[in-house]
Design goal:
mainly beta, 265 residues, eleven-stranded antiparallel beta sheet, five-stranded antiparallel beta sheet, Hypothetical Protein Tm1070, Chain: A, 2 domains, Jelly Rolls
Length: 265
């Protein structure tokens, strides 16, 4: 099975100021704009969360909150971690508690892909500093791993700029997470290498939710397009984004240039 089918499956299930360095908001809160778990067409999709304690807080209790998914985890020693849903409504949070201490200062949490494929986003919060990352793993019906990709914690912003070069067949997608109680409209804007606008579109995002799209499915772009794509997040929301890029069977995640305000035309 090709990586392109992996990305298609994820997207089917999902529904200018100067650039500057920014920090996760608030400190020790880490947002992953895409989280996956489940099975589809005989293949399984898992999320693996790696966490290591990097300060003296002992013990340290962290919480991992999923939105639109509620997958339980298995830890490195075989421990079971539930994902408890505490309220109803749209995209209720599913909470998992993780305790790190001097005896187990790190943990690897794996979902089990026991249900139909779902996508969402996840937020890790800890009282002290940790290093963390999220991996996606794709396996066949015999549980043989076919590939994986890594997402690092995203940076909050209102403008997310991705560079794109379609001349070699590259296809670009994105996942945008709205970690807030506000819902509304976001924009996707394409500009050429001279910074001239080529096309734009608007879409809706719900509170506490995530959307994934292929750029070439929402914008009209030439086959040899070279330029950049800007996502403008929800006004009044809390937006995070990651890019998903593949060429043939080669797949990777890419980080955007993040700004507090949109680019000017």
């Amino acid at each position: 099975m090709r990586w392109s089918l992996f990305i298609v499956a994820l997207f089917v299930c999902a529904g200018a100021s100067p650039a500057r360095a920014q920090s996760p908001t608030p400190s020790n809160v880490y947002v992953f704009p895409l989280f996956v778990d489940g099975t589809m067409n005989g293949s399984s999709y898992r999320s693996i969360v790696n966490i290591i304690k990097t300060d003296a807080t002992d013990p340290m209790q962290c919480s991992l909150t999923q939105r639109n998914t509620s997958a339980p985890f298995t830890g490195v020693d075989g421990n079971f971690y539930s994902a408890d849903v505490f309220d109803g409504g749209f995209s209720p949070p599913a909470l998992t508690l993780i305790i790190l201490d001097r005896f187990l200062p790190w943990e690897i949490l794996r979902t089990g892909a026991q249900s139909p494929l779902k996508t969402g986003y996840a937020v890790l919060a800890c009282p002290g500093a940790v290093q963390t990352q999220l991996q996606f793993a794709l396996a066949d019906a015999q549980n043989n791993k076919l590939g994986e990709a890594t997402i690092t914690p995203a940076v909050k912003g209102n403008s997310f700029q991705f560079f794109i070069d379609r001349r070699d067949g590259t296809r670009l997608g994105f996942s945008l997470a709205n970690n807030s109680s506000a819902g509304g409209e976001f924009a996707v804007i394409a500009r050429d290498r001279f910074n001239q606008e080529v096309d734009r579109t608007y879409d809706e995002i719900e509170p506490w939710s995530q959307v994934s799209r292929f750029v070439d499915e929402v914008l009209k772009l030439p086959a040899d397009f070279v330029g950049n794509i800007e996502l403008v997040g929800l006004n009044g929301g809390e937006s995070y984004a990651v890019g998903l890029q593949f060429t043939g069977m080669v797949f990777t995640t890419i980080q955007p240039v993040v700004r507090d305000t949109p680019l000017s035309n």
